[in-house]
């Protein structure tokens, strides 16, 4: 590859290439004509070979335009076939087209990866015209840029560490085993009758039915640890992630505990020194019922949501974790302590349980953004299309 390709970790970094091979990744190349998109797209395709497919407007002879082509390549079809890695080098640059592509990634539970080549000649329109294999004048390119969103940063709804498919499968096995073990513990079941079930119901919940992943962003099998909720650029510092050296790179996360409450199940993440600067979540939150302030150590809120109770949103998981940690930091003694194969399980009342793992669970992840708007309903058939595919 060219020297510019080496700027992208998913091409140049061995660990990142391995993580991509364990994942479903949807690369979308973005930039004006002459920016080197096609070169980078081909490098990605060459790097991953048979497990990838390259959808290129150049191959179709489609000249870059501000409006969607009527004969545009059908990305939906390729995603439906479950090609593990999809690379889109597209000639459309209007915002609606990019949104369509990123929504497709969400629909089929791919990690969306926005790739924007930055060349030293980019500010020089005359040079861009010469570099592009399409025939443009500088005036045409100026008009093109004015009519499109190219040149403006695309900022995600949130940024985070997206677990590779291999790590998701591994973690969900731990999750399933954890719930099955809890379901057999009389002390756990006795405590949950009063906290998990409403009214006068005297039966404990069936945990693997009570908790679900139906409201997860990107589908029930796309697990992640949120680094920052950026709301498409509406939050302070959101634009910093666009230029972050961590974007598109692989990270190994350490999961140090599993926790369960009447609302959520999650895994606590211990961030390393290299990962902590990427974590910019507002952790100065209040406990939802009392309004008391929570002032944790940086990164304390880092977690992976594994399941939610009916009518509970995944954002609740972080609040539940902070609630448990506040009790622990306040020297609250556990009301129940149980030994499990994976570690020690402690109850802190109100249905709040934490299993401190004797040995942390390592998971591989890719740091990227979640770009989709109006994520599709997970119950739709589209989310199940890729679930049988294994690699």
Summarize the structure in words.
The chain is an alpha+beta fold. The protein has 2 domains: 5-147, 3-Layer(aba) Sandwich (Rossmann fold); 164-221 and 250-367, 2',3'-cyclic nucleotide 3'-phosphodiesterase superfamily (2',3'-cyclic nucleotide 3'-phosphodiesterase fold, Alpha-Beta Complex). It has helices spanning 9-12, 14-21, 37-48, 57-60, 75-80, 95-107, 125-131, 138-147, 165-183, 186-195, 207-210, 316-329; strands at residues 25-29, 52-56, 85-89, 111-115, 158-163, 224-229, 250-260, 264-270, 303-308, 336-340, 343-347, 353-370. The strands form 2 sheets. Strands 5, 6, 7, 8, 9, 10, 11 and 12 form an 8-stranded antiparallel sheet that branches. β10 (336-340) and β11 form a beta hairpin. The chain is elongated, with a radius of gyration of 23 Å. Residues 58-73 and 375-391 have low confidence and may be disordered.
């Amino acid at each position: 590859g060219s020297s510019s390709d080496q700027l992208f970790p998913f091409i140049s970094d061995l660990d990142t290439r391995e993580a991509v091979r364990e994942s479903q990744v949807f690369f979308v190349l973005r930039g004006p004509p002459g920016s080197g998109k096609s070169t980078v797209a081909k490098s990605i395709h060459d790097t991953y070979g048979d497990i990838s497919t390259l959808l290129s407007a150049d191959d179709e002879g489609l000249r870059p335009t501000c409006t969607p082509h009527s004969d545009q390549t059908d990305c939906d079809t390729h995603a439906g076939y479950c090609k593990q890695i999809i690379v889109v080098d597209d000639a459309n640059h209007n915002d609606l087209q990019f949104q369509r592509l990123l929504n497709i990634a969400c629909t089929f539970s791919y990690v969306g990866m926005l790739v924007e080549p930055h060349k030293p000649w980019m500010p020089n329109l005359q040079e861009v015209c010469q570099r592009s294999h399409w025939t443009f004048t500088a005036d045409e390119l100026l008009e093109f840029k004015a009519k499109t969103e190219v040149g403006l940063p695309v900022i995600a709804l949130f940024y985070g560490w997206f677990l590779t498919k291999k790590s998701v499968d591994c973690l969900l096995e731990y999750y399933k085993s954890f719930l099955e073990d809890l379901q057999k513990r009389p002390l756990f079941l006795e405590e949950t009758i009063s906290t998990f079930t409403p009214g006068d119901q005297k039966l404990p919940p069936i945990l693997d039915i009570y908790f679900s992943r139906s409201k997860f962003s990107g589908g029930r099998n796309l697990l992640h640890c949120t680094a920052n909720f950026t709301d498409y650029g509406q939050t302070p510092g959101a634009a910093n992630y666009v230029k972050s050296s961590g974007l598109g790179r692989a990270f190994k996360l350490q999961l140090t505990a599993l926790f369960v409450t009447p609302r959520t199940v999650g895994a606590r993440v211990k961030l390393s020194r290299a990962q902590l600067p990427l974590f910019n979540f507002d952790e100065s939150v209040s406990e939802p019922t009392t309004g008391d302030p929570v002032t944790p150590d940086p990164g304390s809120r880092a977690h992976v949501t594994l399941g939610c109770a009916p009518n509970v949103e995944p954002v609740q998981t972080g609040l539940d974790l902070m609630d448990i940690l506040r009790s622990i930091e306040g020297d609250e003694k556990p009301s129940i302590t149980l030994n499990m194969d994976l570690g020690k399980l402690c109850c802190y009342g109100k249905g709040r349980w934490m299993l401190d793992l004797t040995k942390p669970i390592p998971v591989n992840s890719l740091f990227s953004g979640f770009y989709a708007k109006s994520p599709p309903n997970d119950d739709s058939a589209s989310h199940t299309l890729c679930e049988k595919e294994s690699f």
